[in-house]
Amino acid sequence: MRINDDLEKPVTVDAGAMDWTQSPAAGVDRRMLYRVGAEVARATSIVRYAPGSAFPEHAHTGGEEILVLEGTFQDEHGDYPAGSYFRNPPGTSHSPAAADGCVIFVRLWQFRAGDTAQIVRQPGQGDPLPPRDGAASARLLFDDGAEHVALEAWQPGARITVANPRGLEFLVLSGSLQVAGRPLGPQGWGRLPAGNALLAQVGPMGAEVWLKDAALQHDNILSMPG
């Protein structure tokens, strides 16, 4: 399966308006944003857990990066309410579930060789960053030199420019934006190859945005099976 797999082309998806697709696990549905592969895939998705649903225990051979959007995501290591961000590097494993249901944003098989940082940021955690023009606040979630991940709150009606020297991915968490003339509400997602700045018009309620500044595919990305 291939979805938005041309990393040389800008892409924006109003994922909040997409239909849900059932996964192999009962009660777990997906909105697939980027995918190369079958059930084991290099993928970026929004995943919805119905109350009481769970995935069997599994290892993260290619790494997993998650931002909790709604509800509380859970595993044997703890509870992660909306706003939590964590990275499970290759070699880790868990049994994910959601007693009361949740929605998460997840990136799979996009870690690079040697990336072994396992971090958890609970809601509100992370070092403050100087806000860019048009932003009310910014908070660092992760930075190891190769990737810079942050949450930013953008002011109502602002025009935002985010430079993009190496690749950029973004997700609207709340509020709304217009990007390249396209309206994006909550779960609006985009990916821009290096050299394509993000130019966004913020809606009247402002917007909270997750941003990843990194190569869209690292040169030393982990190889997938087969």
Can you describe this structure?
With 226 residues, this protein is mainly beta. Helices cover 0% and strands 54% of the residues. The chain is built from no helices and 21 strands. Strands 1, 3, 4, 5, 8, 9, 10, 13 and 14 form a 9-stranded antiparallel sheet that branches. A hairpin with a 5-residue loop joins strand 3 (21-22) and strand 4 (28-37). 33% of the residues are buried. The model has no long low-confidence stretch (mean pLDDT 94).
What topology does this entry show?
Layout: E1 2-3, E2 11-14, E3 21-22, E4 28-37, E5 41-49, E6 53-54, E7 58-59, E8 64-75, E9 78-81, E10 85-88, E11 93-94, E12 97-98, E13 102-108, E14 119-121, E15 135-143, E16 147-154, E17 159-162, E18 168-179, E19 182-184, E20 188-192, E21 198-214
Antiparallel strand pairs: 1-4, 2-20, 3-4, 4-5, 5-13, 6-12, 7-11, 8-9, 8-10, 8-13, 10-14, 15-16, 16-21, 17-21, 18-19, 18-20, 18-21
Main sheet specs: 9 strands, antiparallel
Work out the radius of gyration: 17 Å
Helix share bin: under 10%
The structural class is: mainly beta
What's the total count of β strands?
21
Per CATH, the superfamily of the domain at 17-121 is Jelly Rolls
Amino- and carboxy-terminal Cα gap: 14 Å
Query: Spans with pLDDT under 50 lasting ≥5 residues?
Result: none
Q: Could you spell the SSE succession in H and E letters?
A: EEEEEEEEEEEEEEEEEEEEE
Q: Which CATH class of the domain at 17-121?
A: Mainly Beta
Q: What number is the mean pLDDT?
A: 94
For this structure, the quaternary state is: single chain
Q: Hey, roughly how much beta strand do the residues contain? A: over 45%
CATH architecture verdict of the domain at 17-121: Sandwich
